[in-house]
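Consider the following assembly input.
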Amino acid sequence: MAFFHRLQDSAFTEWFLGSPSIWAYPTVLTLHTVGMAILVGASFVINLRVLQGSGVMPLQRLRPLYRFIWFGFTINLLSGLVLFVTEAADRVVDPVFYVKMGSIAVALWLALVLKRRTIDRADGPQVATVLSRSLAALSLSLWTIAIVAGRLMAYVK
Amino acid sequence: MRISTRIGFAFAGIALTTASLAAHHSFAMFDMDKDVEYRGIVSEWKWQNPHVHFTVDIKNAPGGDPQMAGRWDVEGGSVNIMTRQGWTRASYKVGDQIRLVGHPMKDGSKGISLFYAIRPDGTRLYHDIARPKDDVKK
Amino acid sequence: MADLSAWIEATWISKALFGISWLWPASESLHFIGLCMLIGGAGLLDLRLMGMFRGLAIRHVKTMMPWAIGGFVLNAVTGTLFLVMQPHLYLSSGIFWSKIAFLVLAGANALFFETRLAVPALAMSPDADTPAAMKVVGALSLLSWFAVLYCGRMLPYLGTGN
């Protein structure tokens, strides 16, 4: 716990949160929004196509979307780490923070499961199974919960 | 309806219920139509994004409103916007006297949305430039 | 603009909406969800127009568009709610009007595509590379939507905002 307080009370935190420069807090926050748009946007398309069951887009052709998922996630992991450091002690005891992290972790894991079940199979069917469609629906809900939790963190400290 | 659609709606319902349950946790509601003046001592000073935040201790003055006494939470704007209005990290510090005008919470709890602080020379430090009912600068 | 904001904030509808304590935060969450739907759906089409995702026919990618439009509508509605509840945060802000300008640019770009390029685009084979005009339209679309996002997120810091 002392470790998290050291992070939150560090000179870096004081500079980062107190700087009137737009390149400090505002830029990192905006990068986090950009990452979210790319990460959740790409996941949204994949989940939607899987949910469509017998959609017209060949599932295998959507594989490049996973590059965007990882790109968006990387932006948000890095920007998120910076933001976390500045609030470390408050967030480590914040249940909303854990809801957000948990939802993201499971949603990403589901994205990989869906990839294995549908996109990676060269002989794979174009019609996703009931299980895959359920996982896609669950993934959509989890991203929704993650976004709401993220917004809630701004109000509940 | 296909089973996948049913499941989809079920999960969407769960997500939205969770979201609205969370949202009904009451959010800070300031009475933006009320301008009240406060005088006290700064007890906490947080010059930080996304919101500058400080607390003001008001003494129970003889002849004064007893409901005024206590520790008040003052919410400002972003460091960036307040800096443009003339605020700095050094504008106030713990122990300083402060005079400010702000909007109190609707439910009577000790929270204030900052309108402007009043400097010793009488000039104002506005939180933000675009307040609709802006009165004449002294 | 300050007078217009004051006038709006004095109306019954503005007070009633802003008086619902959870409406503002809920609208923010919905606004974020809407932008993900929009950038996801429209983004895939834009990238295909730029020549990526060969093997996907444009007419098939367009099946995602109703969802992108749904996201846009969600954001238009929540955006209007913000404007009605707290106009003073936006109407006097240069960054807000920049956001509107980029929205208009994105819309005009989409209109240009629909009226001039859609017919040949929909007829293209899945593996076809796209002509330069489509590449420009796709790139401009992506750039303008991300510019809209940037302006919106920066409002509390660059422009007037709480």
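The mean pLDDT of chain C is 94. Ask yourself how this observation constrains the way the partners meet.
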